[in-house]
């Protein structure tokens, strides 16, 4: 796990360097440490297993969270989305994986 640098030529013949993170990056979470690590690992597994299908990755995460932590979990997996949500305390995780793939997991009953 680490960073991958992608170098390409721009129109002006200047090299443009873009860094792609290959490790999970948590942007916001209020979960306890154990639940956060478990949810992050679940998200990474789902995104790797369903690399070409964000809907199936979200479904896998939601079904697993519903079984382990009760119902009413919601999941969004994708690129370039925005949200405004209401969630229960100690039940949200917002992270990036593999560069620009974002995952948001939250509970709202």
Uncertain runs: none
Nearest-integer average pLDDT: 87
**Strands across the major sheet, in which order?**
3-5-6-4
Distance between the termini: 36 Å
Element-by-element helix/strand order: EEEHHEEE
Strand content is 25-35%
Helix/strand/pairing category: alpha+beta
- Main beta sheet: 4 strands, antiparallel
Per the principal axes of the C-alpha atoms, what is the gross shape? globular
Number of helices: 2
Radius of gyration: 16 Å
The total count of strands amounts to 6
User: Roughly how much helix do the residues carry, as a percent range?
Assistant: 25-40%
Q: Features of this protein?
A:
109 residues; alpha+beta; 2 helices
Concise overview:
With 109 residues, the chain is an alpha+beta fold.
Please outline the helices and strands.
Elements: E1 3-9, E2 15-21, E3 25-29, H1 33-49, H2 54-69, E4 73-78, E5 92-97, E6 101-107
Helix pairs in contact: 1-2
Question: What this model shows, in words?
Answer:
This protein has about 110 residues and is an alpha+beta fold. It is about 30% helix and about 35% strand. The chain contains 2 helices and 6 strands; from the N terminus they run E-E-E-H-H-E-E-E. It has helices spanning about 35-50, 55-70, and strands at about 5-10, 15-20, 25-30, 75-80, 90-95, 100-105. The strands form 2 sheets. It has a 4-stranded antiparallel beta sheet, with helices on one face. It has a two-stranded antiparallel ribbon with strand order 1-2. A hairpin with a 5-residue loop joins strand 1 and strand 2 (about 15-20). Helix 1 (about 35-50) runs antiparallel to helix 2. The longest helix has 17 residues, at about 35-50. The chain is globular and about 50 Å long.
């Amino acid at each position: 796990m680490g960073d991958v640098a992608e170098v390409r030529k721009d129109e002006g013949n200047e090299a443009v360097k873009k860094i792609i993170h290959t490790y999970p990056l948590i942007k916001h979470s209020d979960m306890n440490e154990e639940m956060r690590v478990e949810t992050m690992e679940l998200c990474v597994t789902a995104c790797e297993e369903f690399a070409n299908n964000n809907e199936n990755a979200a479904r896998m995460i939601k079904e697993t969270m519903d079984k382990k932590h009760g119902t009413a979990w919601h999941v969004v997996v994708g690129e370039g989305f925005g949200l405004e949500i209401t969630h229960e305390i100690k039940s949200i995780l917002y992270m990036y994986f593999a560069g620009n793939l974002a995952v948001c997991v939250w509970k709202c009953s």
